[in-house]
Amino acid sequence: MDKQSQLDDLKLTIENSGITPELKAGATQLVFGAGNPDADIVFIGEAPGKNEDLKGEPFVGAAGKFLNEMLAAADLKREDVYITNIVKYRPPNNRDPLPEEKRAFWPYLMQQLETIAPKVVITLGRHSGECFIPDIHISQDHGHARRVKYHDYEFLVIPLYHPAAALYNGGMRQTLIDDFIAAAAVARKNLSS
Q1: Mean pLDDT, the chain, whole residue set
Q2: Residue 131 belongs to what domain range?
Q3: What's the burial of 133, exposed, middle or buried (CB within 10 Å: 0-12/13-18/19+)?
Q4: CATH number for the domain including 75?
Q5: Strands of the sheet with 146-150, listed across from one edge
Q6: Global pTM value
Q7: Euclidean distance between CA atoms 76 and 51, whole angstroms
Q8: Is 94 exposed, middle or buried (0-12, 13-18, 19+ CB in 10 A)?
Q9: DSSP letters of 8-55?
């Protein structure tokens, strides 16, 4: 079975699992992920927002437009990478995902990653970063790569600020772009070694 078929099966498993029933009840649909199932780089956000919930695809709202800008600045294309979130149903009023919601989705996220088998995971925001690096302080650790091992699967994690940070604080915009370009360079170096 090819990777896309495995991912499609995993999506169905989540939809049928009864996971986070209150989130599911308030969401339009599951937002599983999008992009290249053979990607070497996977971006992981926190949870879908309103636009993502309506379209069924991660990062399609204002933060997604800025993510596209950053991808272009780093000479990457959406179709070359894979983009997902930890929590795959929209939390009410776009609130932060709760620890128990992140825990509930964690095994599915890891199954998603093991299927895609990226060499580099770039986390977008504190919530996704702390799932991989529990002691993270995003203001200090953004852009600093760390090796992470899950079972027999080892990969590089690069925590970055969430693209929405630049929407709320224009002064963050250049920091995010610079971090993104540097993270892409680290990712490429890791892919070629």
Answers
A1: 92
A2: 3-192
A3: middle
A4: 3.40.470.10
A5: 34-35, 82-85, 41-45, 120-124, 153-160, 146-150
A6: 0.94
A7: 23
A8: middle
A9: HHHHHHHHHHT-SHHHHHHSSS----EE-TT-SEEEEES---HHHHHH
